[in-house]
Design brief:
This protein is α+β, with helices and mostly antiparallel strands and 498 residues long. 38% of the residues lie in helices and 14% in strands. The protein has four domains: 55 residues, no CATH class; 214 residues, 3-Layer(aba) Sandwich (Aspartate Aminotransferase, domain 2); 104 residues, Aspartate Aminotransferase, domain 1 (Alpha-Beta Complex); 78 residues, Orn/Lys/Arg decarboxylase, C-terminal domain (Ornithine Decarboxylase, Chain A, domain 4, Alpha-Beta Complex), CATH 3.90.100. It has 15 helices and 18 strands. The strands form five sheets. An eight-stranded mixed beta sheet has the order 1-10-9-8-6-2-3-16, with helices on both faces. Strands 11-13-15-14 form a four-stranded antiparallel beta sheet. It is globular, with a radius of gyration of 24 Å.
């Protein structure tokens, strides 16, 4: 008999998900009512802005710090350790790390764990900016692979496995493969074969699963990245589950990831004064998910799918995306809505729905996305449906001349491999100067050009600027796209490397 296996099975079976050990420790801190002679300076809410105190007073009482009786995020031995173990069990990981800087901190930590200066890593080009920032800090030399494009929505997805296999054959010295799955729109690819290919090459599969924290929890949603063989996965627990904003989890499975180094890196980049409110909300999000959330998720998906199918038949001017052969699974908690008349952009739809009282999660040149929670009742869903019907009718009444917008091209052809002429870190430290956008073609970019959301850079520092880039920037700006932290809000000039 394998006693180690029996011991592990016993430990898993004894996991008590009715507990929320970290939250319970914070409640005990409040109950003891000791006089705070330590940070934070609001002293459990005693010293605070009076006009706002009615909003904050209850929660400030458990806005604690690492003192006796409350565990340390950077050296967990008690309630945080137990809370992370319960989370690992709930999400199918071998070890879970709580994060208080969102998935951004997780991506930075992964990059610094996986890469040393000069290391190569194969990176899907449609990654969140935090991935590229992490690789910049690490001094890595990413090799970009262009993503696949879903034909109706034009959303970027994981490239076909054949392209990645070819890339690994041409670059056998990469430290890993890093992909985003699902994308912001909830489109999920089967990455089981990709994980197998990575493991055959002796490298890890890293997955940014920020928008799929609920995946794998019930059969009605796509499987999780961990269940498909990923080695390290970042999830934004605050996005699709119920923790507070900026709280995320980093999951590790198997032995290919150096967990000691990962813990050391996270200790360097996370605050030594982490928010215990955020940490406690992660603990509660896991408890809610296991105790009630999974059942609520099943019921919500059933309601949403029924209403989506009915609504799709009623709409005249709008459409709700229902999947395509190129996408293996879609997230039923996300409705991707677009105008059948391509003269109406997603940015215009966003404004129309905003005026109607329904605020979308994201808009792009073609679509908007509505994001539902784990627990939506018929009444809440119907409010969104009513707004969709109103806008559908308004668009029928508008005199819009139909025309086909020219597709905006964000990336190279699927599977295209390219390594920037200058590494991210080198480009960051190089002198730069500002020139007219039209004159920048052929130069190396000196800033991050970032349409936002979803936070995927059109250009990273060190990438060569092409006519395609210039045309896309102009198109996006004319359509009303928002660029995050550009050097020039008009997008008429940008920095290039001298």
């Amino acid at each position: 008999m394998n006693l180690t296996k029996v011991s592990k099975e016993k430990e898993v079976n004894e996991m008590d998900h009715t507990k929320a050990p970290l939250y319970e420790a914070l409640c005990l801190y409040e109950e003891t009512n000791r006089t705070s002679m330590h940070v934070p300076g609001h002293k459990d809410g005693r010293v605070f802005d009076k006009a706002a105190q009615h909003h904050f007073s209850d929660i400030l009482k458990i806005d604690a710090t690492c003192i006796k009786g409350i565990d340390d995020l950077h050296q967990p031995t008690d309630s945080i350790l137990e809370a992370q173990r319960l989370a690992a069990d709930a999400f199918g990981a071998d070890q879970t790390f709580f994060l208080v800087g969102g998935s951004t901190i997780g991506n930075l930590g992964i990059a610094l764990t996986m890469c040393s200066p000069g290391d190569k890593i194969l990176v899907q080009r449609n990654m969140h900016k935090s991935v590229f920032n992490g690789l910049l800090f690490a001094g890595a030399h990413p090799i970009y692979i262009a993503p696949a494009i879903e034909p109706t929505t034009k959303a970027a997805m994981v490239s076909d496995i054949a392209h990645i296999e070819k890339a690994l054959m041409e670059n056998p010295d990469v430290k890993g493969v890093w992909v985003t799955n699902p994308n912001y729109y909830g489109m999920s690819q089967d990455i089981t074969r990709l994980a197998e290919v990575c493991h055959q090459a002796g490298i890890p599969l890293i997955v940014d699963e920020a928008h799929g924290a609920q995946f794998g929890q019930v059969d009605e949603v796509p499987p999780s990245a961990l269940s498909m063989g990923a080695d390290i996965v970042i999830q934004s627990t605050h996005k699709m589950l119920t923790s507070m904003h900026m709280s995320s989890m980093l999951h590790v499975k198997g032995d290919i990831i150096d967990r000691e180094r990962l813990a050391r890196v996270l200790g360097m980049i996370q605050s030594t004064s982490p928010s215990y409110l955020l940490l406690g909300s992660l603990d509660l999000a896991r408890r809610y998910l296991v105790e009630n959330g999974r059942n609520h998720l099943k019921e919500t998906v059933t309601r949403l799918e029924k209403r989506r199918k009915e609504l799709s038949l009623e709409l005249k001017s709008l459409s709700i995306w229902g999947g395509s052969p190129e996408v293996h699974r879609r997230d039923p908690l996300k409705w991707i809505i677009s105008s059948k008349n391509e003269a109406i952009s997603g940015y215009q739809l966003f404004d129309l729905f905003y005026d109607q009282g329904a605020v979308a999660e994201i808009s792009d040149p073609r679509n908007i996305v509505f994001l539902f929670s784990l627990n939506e009742n018929e009444e809440d869903i119907e409010k969104v449906v009513d707004a969709i019907k109103v806008i559908d009718q308004k668009l029928q009444e508008l005199a819009i001349i139909p025309h086909e917008n020219k597709d905006i091209i964000m990336f190279e052809e699927e599977g295209t491999l390219y390594q920037p002429k200058m590494s991210l870190q080198e480009a960051f430290h190089k002198p730069r100067h500002k020139i007219r956008l039209e004159d920048s073609i052929g130069s190396l970019c000196g800033e991050t050009v970032l349409p936002y959301p979803p936070g995927i850079p059109l250009l990273n520092p060190g990438e060569e600027i092409t006519k395609r880039h210039v045309d896309t920037i102009k198109q996006l700006h004319e359509m009303g796209a928002y660029f995050q932290s550009p050097s020039d809000d008009t997008m008429e000039t940008l920095y290039v490397i001298k």
